[in-house]
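lol ok so funny story. i was supposed to be doing the assay writeup but got distracted and ended up predicting the structure for this chain instead. priorities right. anyway since i did it might as well share w the group, maybe its usefull for someone
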Amino acid sequence: MEDTIQKTVDKKKFTGQLDISIGTMIEIPRAALTADQIAEHADFFSFGTNDLTQMTFGYSRDDINSFLPDYLKQELLEADPFQSLDTTGVGQLVEMGVKKGRSTKKGLKVGICGEHGGDPSSIDFCNAVGLDYVSCSPFRVPIARLAAAQAALRAKK
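and the output, tada:
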């Protein structure tokens, strides 16, 4: 039986090429810092901003709920960095990653995935730094589409 299968496989040689995009998630600060090197091997980047936020702030997902509400109440943070992208810190890494990646590969497609992709202020930032797409959970898609359209209109002015 195995010989029959192998002979069938041998007869069906593939002669065409597959057009498949290869990409990577940028989820840790070092990946953003070395994005130019990573872009040599990738057609697209997707910034995993939830993980990138966790790594940049040094927050543990297990512990965050024990102190984040207090940080927000005492205004140590302007907003929950897992809901609205911290453009000052994490955003710098995203912007740098985009610039470095596109310095190596001009046509590099770049976006974010995660809850930030459904936040209007995060979408404004993504548009400003030249991201191609955002993705988010399904319930946030209508908000994301509206915010993306508004950001595009503001950019035209």
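The chain is about 50% helix and 10% strand. The two ends are 68 Å apart (CA to CA).
back to the writeup now i swear
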